[in-house]
Amino acid sequence: MQRRTRRVLNPAVTRLWNIEMSGYDRLPTEGPAILCPNHISFLDSALLTFTVPRNISFVGKAEYMDSWKTKFIFPAMGMIPIDRSGGERSSSALDAAMGVLRRGELFGIYPEGTRSRNGKLHKGRTGAARLALATGCPIYPVGIAGTDAIQPPDAKMPKLRLMPSIRAKPRKMHCEHSLLHTLRFREERSKPGGVNPAEIRSSSSRLSET
């Protein structure tokens, strides 16, 4: 359904907004990959879905399933509901995401876990890194700008004729180094007594040698 919907609505989307795109030619034409955009507007997932030339699935907050306006169309467009309370409910969404990647498709996940209300990039979560480690898929950072002017976080309707920018990072990023270090650091920090600085230095040293 997503492919047909993109074909029908893409001309309208490109007429409503003059989208500046770059780096899309570096995205893989086949095989799995994880796209990690920043998140500043409700429109981010929609504009990526309509501009990326392949089917892409996203995680979306489970609350979208409570509204008649979104409970059918969002899953049909590839949204995987995620309960942001954590625990097993969040893990089930990541399990579904692994299924998307193992089918050789694209998967998008916002590392921050929610929209930024001030346009700044906030502290990320480990979902993307865990998916990459579990599946061996590359991560492609994606930068989005201008969508917060089209539809700010509290706006009901988008503004027209503005020009957002979507930039896919030219080079893919593997997570064996810095992202794995982030996971290790988080795991160490969660242990009783906090983080041992010597362990952090030792972990960083081992990673830099690989």
Characterize the structure shown.
This protein is of the alpha/beta class and 210 residues long. It has two domains: 2-173, Glycerol-3-phosphate (1)-acyltransferase, CATH 3.40.1130; 176-210. 38% of the residues lie in helices and 15% in strands. The chain has eight helices and seven strands. The protein has helices at residues 2-16, 44-51, 73-76, 88-102, 127-135, 147-150, 178-189, 197-209; strands at 20-22, 33-37, 56-61, 79-82, 106-108, 139-145, 165-168. The protein has a seven-stranded mixed beta sheet with strand order 1-7-6-2-5-3-4, with helices on both faces. Strand 3, helix 3 and strand 4 (79-82) form a beta-alpha-beta unit. Helix 1 (2-16) crosses helix 2, helix 4 packs across helix 5 (127-135) and helix 7 runs antiparallel to helix 8 (197-209).
What's the quick description here?
The protein has 210 residues and is of the alpha/beta class.
Characteristic terms for this protein:
single chain; 210 residues; alpha/beta; Glycerol-3-phosphate (1)-acyltransferase; seven-stranded mixed sheet; 8 helices; 38% helix; 15% strand; globular; disordered C terminus
**Average pLDDT across residues?**
76
Q: Give the count of structural domains.
A: 2
- Return the CATH architecture of the largest domain: 3-Layer(aba) Sandwich
Number of helices: 8
**CATH fold name of the largest domain:** Glycerol-3-phosphate (1)-acyltransferase
Structural class: alpha/beta
Distance between the termini: 43 Å
Task: Give start-end ranges of low-pLDDT stretches.
Answer: 175-210
Taking the sheet with the most strands, its summary is: 7 strands, mixed
Strand content: 15-25%
Strand order of the largest sheet: 1-7-6-2-5-3-4
Overall shape: it is: globular
Computed Rg: 18 Å
One letter per element, helices H and strands E, the order comes to: HEEHEHEHEHEHEHH
Helix content: 25-40%
